[in-house]
Amino acid sequence: MTTTPVDLLSAQGLRITFPGRHGAEPARAVDGVDLDIRPGEIVALVGESGCGKTTLARSLLGLVPPTAGQVTFDGKPLDYRSRALKAYRKRVQLVLQDPSGSLNPRHTVYDAVAEGLRIHGYAGDERQAVHDALSRAGLRPPERFFLRYPHELSGGQRQRVVIAGALVLEPELIVADEPVASLDASVRGEILALLLRLRDELGLSALVVTHDLGLAWNIADRVAVMYLGRIVETGDVEQILTAPRHPYTQALLSVLPEAEGDPVVLTGEPPDPSRVPSGCRFHARCQVLASGEAERAGVADACRTQDLPVLAGGSETQVACHWATAKVAAGS
Ligand SMILES: Nc1ncnc2c1ncn2[C@@H]1O[C@H](COP(=O)(O)OP(=O)(O)O)[C@@H](O)[C@H]1O
Ligand code: SF4
Ligand SMILES: [Mg+2]
User: Fold this and answer.
1) How far is CA 75 from CA 71, 94, 219, 258, in A?
2) Ligand 1 atom, smallest distance to 19 CA
3) Are residues 230 and 310 in contact, defined by beta-carbon separation less than 8 angstroms?
4) Which of 207, 197, 261 is nearest to 234 (CA)?
């Protein structure tokens, strides 16, 4: 008998709708998402700015209650009462990028890292815990950093302090929202290597949120590509990045510096979650529909009128596209 690995964190049928501003329609920021993260796995959540990544990530942390659907951790639905949420946030830590103000400029590195321990009433040796977390985050020797202030550190070091502040609580999973977006390319590689090492050495799982599909290459086991509140393609990183099937994933990949062939320039309006198009939500910008390829495959009407099903969670490779599905059915 084979046993299925238990998911650490799951979302099922998750929807998050914000009330419309100034009489506008409500914004369907997350519009039906199933997502699973397994122990020791790094999943990259990728998509253009505004597609709902941060909203999804925050709801996985219990910071935004879902409008519909649910989040489960270790097989149990999240308990949104404050005490239970506090205990949950010890096990699942949010890592933001430092320039968004996650470090208080008036706190030393020691205090920044110790803060989580103090919030959670840690009863052990605080100094030792801070020391170990800084060391794991690659700031060595840790004592040298204790009394430094954020402005005395480089961008990469500051990001490591933020990561140490998450690690000090020994979480099982970290959710990192654009953790390297503002760092130089060389430092970016170092921080990504750190996340990989933490997975290998501590078995730490991570959801890494990024607008940069290229970044997923370097770090993720699995990738989920998000467009206008939905996951449109998901699966093993190698497979998605070498043989993308969704036209949106193909377009994102085509503009990476290492891509071969012509970049696909997406036309049409930038996506607006208060005006989700009917049919395939990508259809007004889809290069496969615009070029007549979808027409030749006999799916153009479906593209314009038939919504696609929500992709199931799990680790299977899946795609939400009439054309990609028709190609598989036709054996091409
Ligand atoms: N608190 C909020 N109230 C209203 N709309 C919001 C709120 N937070 C996010 N949105 C909208 O939801 C959409 C998704 O935003 P976000 O999750 O930040 O996307 P991403 O992280 O992919 O850039 C955007 O259109 C944004 O304007
Ligand atoms: S369903 Fe049609 S419009 Fe949507 S991505 Fe696929 S080919 Fe393009
Ligand atoms: Mg964001």
Assistant:
1) 9, 20, 26, 40
2) 4
3) yes
4) 207
Strand positions, DSSP E, the chain:
9-18, 27-37, 42-46, 68-73, 76-77, 92-96, 173-177, 205-210, 222-227, 230-236, 318-319
Distance (angstroms) between ligand 2 centre and the Cα of 66 equals 28
At 206, the amino acid letter reads A
The finding on whether 279 has its CB within 6 A of some atom of ligand 2 is no
Question: Cα(44)–Cα(213) distance, rounded to whole angstroms?
Answer: 8
One-letter amino acid at 61 equals L
Residue pair 111/194 in contact by the 8 Å Cβ criterion: no
pLDDT computed for residue 200 by the predictor: 95
What is the C-alpha to C-alpha distance for residues 203 and 71, in angstroms, rounded to an integer? 22
pLDDT digits (tens, 9 = 90+) for 93-139: 999 887 667 899 999 999 999 999 999 999 999 999 999 999 999 99
Range scoring the smallest mean pLDDT among 14-18, 217-221, 268-272, 276-280: 268-272
Q: What is the pTM of this model?
A: 0.95
Out of 14, 16, 18, give the residue to mutate to test ligand 1, the one with the largest number of ligand atoms within 8 Å of its CB: 18
Question: Token pair of 84, please?
Answer: 């239970």
Residue 183 and residue 156 in contact, taking contact as beta carbons nearer than 8 Å: yes
* DSSP letter (8 states) at residue 140: S
